[in-house]
Input
Amino acid sequence: MKPFQYLAPIPPFEYLSPETLSELFEALDGHGKELQVIAGGTDLVIALKERMVTPKVVVDLRRLRRELGGIKVEEGVLRMGALSTFSQLESSPFVARYAEALRQAAASVGTLQIRSIATLGGNLATASPAADSAPPLIALGAKVTLLSASGARTLPVQEIFAGPKRNGLRPGEIVSSVELPANADVRSAWTRAAVRNENVLSTVSVAVASAIRDGRFGPSRVALGAVAPTPILAEKASEAMTGSQATAEQADRVASLAAEDSKPISDIRASAHYRKRLVYVLTRRLIVQMISETMVP
Amino acid sequence: MSGRVKVKFRLNGVGKTDEIEPNQTLCDYLHDVAGMTSVKKGCDTGECGACTVLLDDMPVSSCLVLAPQIEGREVVTAEGLGTNSSPHPVQSGFVEQDAVQCGYCIPGMIVTLSWIFEHAPGASDEEIKRLMSGNLCRCTGYLQQIEALKTARKRA
Output
């Protein structure tokens, strides 16, 4: 009996699972668009089923857990390997301490069954404008390290996003890790609006990172998801927030600027007009909450 | 160019080696090749949870995993959680609370709830709902299933 399938069978491909980095770079060499890399697979396997990609070779990173996995703090830097799953980010005490916004986003991605396998590196490499890990990382000033046969290079996280579902990886290059300053004075928070609570793409997501001292915001960054072709740093909002008085009035002003910084489109999830309004409401909410948490002795 | 991949793994506690077609999902492999018929295909896109299995003791949507990715790992399906004579506490809870109607979502639901039972024994109702949001049930309305988990907790 032929098994019933909603989607047509995935066309055949060669599957490689290198066990060392040199085997990996050998596997990645020379295939160009015929090759796809798989980590957690939660995006790629759907793309394979829907024929959005039809690779001749699929290279699995999973056996490189030692090289590309792990969450640790060293010399004032929080380093998260590309193979870190959202479940691992959600339960890591280091992430909770130094990147609370990322922990909140990780806990909201997909479902338990998705978070168990979906990876941080995959979320960045898929380069969705709605990638939930991106606004927290951008707000926290994170950098992404890319690795290829010719060595490593490091970019601010927003620069790996080249356009909707287009990443800035060069051929033969993979995401290796994400680093951010391990500074416990910096508070960060993330929130989103979506058409339901769970297992849903964000309609708008916002992350804010700042340190409030003596009633003023220190260096601050506001980052936005799903309101531009890529996740973005809200530049005017971040500038206005940095060094300003930590008051509700200022939260309102920063939130208005964040809405101005956003460049949303209308799609099935929301209109551009509504998204701009959401950017204002969510940004204001996060900053007001941050102020009130700091006031508590 | 394509070719089967030799994969060594554990399935429901038993070591296994198989030559696996890489262009099939773990869901298809388990159901159609390995005979684990508890692993149901619902949406085939990681939304419904009917194909949930434990992979290295974490619930995953097996329709989003390529079969050869289980190399060196431990796979547990509902078949591996309990038997008729010795059911898992969550399975007994389902019977006691009558938490089944059509049944299609139930193996995946039981895999997820057994994981919550083991790993989140103190989870509140809200947290249980968040953790089981990846298992859709179009019959029961979920409340009986949460009660089934609580019954299991009481008996444990």
Summary: The interface with chain B takes residues 3-7, 9-15, 17, 38, 40-42, 45-46, 48-49, 56, 58, 60, 62-63, 87, 110-114, 116-117, 197-199 of chain A (CB under 8 Å). The two ends of chain A are 68 Å apart (CA to CA).
